[in-house]
Amino acid sequence: MGLRSLALSWLRKAKRFIEVAKRDLDGGYYDISAFNAQQAAEMSLKAVLIAKTGYKPLTHSITELLDALSELLDVPDHIRSCSHIEEHYIQARYPDARLREYTREEAERAVRCGEAIVRYAEGLLEVGGGEGQEEG
């Protein structure tokens, strides 16, 4: 499997995660929705890094992935501002990782960021017409 093919398979998986995140949001599963949005963002960024460098960082940190991508290209502010989504990797998975339940608004914000990062990755990989690259 070539690098582009591998990157696109990561992006396809990311798109599945964002679709599930939206479905979970509609179903009231706010914690799971936020987690799936984080996974979509993580996989999208890894897809771009695979395509651009041939390397997939072994991290779940959106901040670290964005930092790595920033070494290659200019990452727009609206994408950088989504780095907060990384908290959902731990907090949404473990019942004792936070003091309060997830809210709809919190999950909606995570889904919006996950969608923005997926669209950004699609644009960088020239998939789906590149819409959404210049939001903000």
Structural overview:
It is built from six helices and no strands. With 136 residues, it is mainly alpha-helical. It has one domain: Up-down Bundle (Four Helix Bundle (Hemerythrin (Met), subunit A)), CATH 1.20.120.330. Helix 1 (3-27) packs antiparallel against helix 2, helix 1 packs antiparallel against helix 6 and helix 2 packs parallel to helix 3. The longest helix is centred in the N-terminal third of the chain and has 25 residues, at 3-27. It is globular.
Describe this structure in a few short sentences.
With 136 residues, this protein is mainly alpha-helical.
What coarse outline follows from CA principal-axis ratios? Answer: globular
Look at the helices and sheets and give the structural class: mainly alpha
Tally of contiguous helical segments = 6
Taken as a percent bin, the fraction of beta residues is under 5%
Specify the biggest β-sheet: none
Give me the CATH superfamily. Nucleotidyltransferases  domain 2
Q: Assign the CATH architecture.
A: Up-down Bundle
Gyration radius from CA atoms, angstroms: 14 Å
Helix content: 55-70%
Order of helices and strands: HHHHHH
Termini, distance in Å?
A: 35 Å
